[in-house]
Structures
1.
Amino acid sequence: MRLLFGRVRYRGIDYDLNIISNILCSSFFVFIDIFFLSLILAIFTFAIHQSITISSLIFTGCYTFCFSIFMVLKKWLRDQPD
């Protein structure tokens, strides 16, 4: 059955892969991902501390920590001239 289908050439899907790569590496996508990561962490730890104040502090702390790590890595891993 595999022999009936021809392989797609890499050059044919190169443009599509570049679009997906640009979207996944965009800062806006990373900030949305960090927001949902922090929100999920705050919701799942709510059963332990049972306080909206502590939950909001966990959300803010997690978001700030992940945001600062992203900014530091973005600065350090920028393309360096050879």
2.
Amino acid sequence: MGLSLRRRLCLLLLLCLVVAMLTFLLNPSTVNKQKQDSVRSVQKSKIKRVTGHRRRESLHPKETPVQRPLYTWDNCTDLLQRNQSAVDLSESSTALSHVDHLHVAAASCVQYTQYWQWDSSSGMDTQDFPIAYIIVVHKNAAQVELLLHSIYTPYNIYCIHVDKRSPSAFRAALSAMAGCYDNVFISHRLESVVYGGYSRLKADFNCLQDLADSPVKWRYVINLAGQDFPLKTQNEIVAQLKVFGGQNDIPGVQSSSDIHGDRTRFVHDVVTNDGEMSVVQTEKRKSPPPHNLTIYTGIAYYIASHAFMSWVLTDKVAKDLLEWSQDTYSPDEFYWATLNKLPAAPGGFSKPTWSSTIRAIKWVYFEGKQYPPCQGKYVRDVCVFGIGDLQWLIDCHHLFANKFDLNFDPVVLQCLQELLKLRGERPYDTRFTVKDFPRKDIPWLLL
């Protein structure tokens, strides 16, 4: 009997233990906690996955974490189908409150390139039509990283010019990122870039000279800023460049404005006030442009053929104009446009035109006239796009757009990134194709 009683007591205790464990495991709060722990584990493993070639093992220095783009096109189409004026910054910020944080390069090159795996569907055409990119940057490594991997293919070549005055953590992060790829590099000569100064043009030239020595036989070079973002896939960009047929996309007109005229009529100096460098106009008159050149006003950004850039690097007129421009204001906005009008310029176009495929931009001066109002904010009279600008950006024929700010409204960047991915995967899906693209109605293509 004694033994039987002990057995009964043991069975009773075992039964109580089983009941207690089942009660704990079936408790909703316990189940939710287990799910959360599981999600965190998956997220951590994703953060460790980081595309392209392995170049060498290196640890990436950490920078200020930024929320990582993890939006889906379903969310983006939902935003597009609603009243755009109702989509504001607070909604964009809330949409990202639950996602991972992106630490710019907190892993080895193997992990990093595995994470940013190249999508061949969006850039395979660059194998036979490589493009050179010049990217001039000074801040926000996470956004530069997003830009690079949105235009990356292993067949292109990328030169990044990092401002000498940028924080050391930013420069180290960009160097580590470039070090993981055979076709991405930091320019060998860096400038302290001053807004409106010759240093901005020199930054392009430094990269251009590096690219001239590259073994990659690139067809065109495109220069970008860190706050640009593509509106077309790499295959679509190649399709547009093939239509160019060796012509340059460098807009420019003769300026009738005294403001623009003063940029080249007077000597300008770089001054420093309270640690800030700026370009100021002096009362000293400049000598006339060399070789009796007519100065054309354009923009700092271009799509130029290899033949044109090779000519720029070696031609005496181009060299003399570069020398003459050093004490002017914003020479990057007239140098390329002026040279492109010369009869000797390969792929040039002599007639004045602003028509271009380079980049979509909203200036405050033309709001409501040439395009709908900015749905983000204005910085230096240029719209920093918000999610409400998404449909306008999608409908643009341009290859790139400016400006974006990952810290201001990240969702518009995420939706564009997701759209490019879908267009790369489904090039014949009419829901995602671009109307009237590639463009063939540009004036300098109708000769």
3.
Amino acid sequence: MMMKKKALSDKYPIGQLVRSRQGRDQNRLYIVTAVGDRNLDAADGTKWTVSKPKRKNPLHLQKINIRMDAEITDADIVKIIQTFENRKENQEDK
């Protein structure tokens, strides 16, 4: 019996917060905006917007357990990323 390979959209649903693990943008946070067969599109709300997202290789991403459900806008993405970074900094201060 062959196991079916898990679809990329199952692992990285649209609205998923991810961190880049490699490349020039290492440690940068993104929200997944679209999922293709082998790559996914991600936006940070400033340089990479919802209308012009960055194409990312999922092997270079780390999934973070935060997900947006509503319609994704650049302003929402910026807010989510800032909130997550602030919360992380507060945890490191303790």
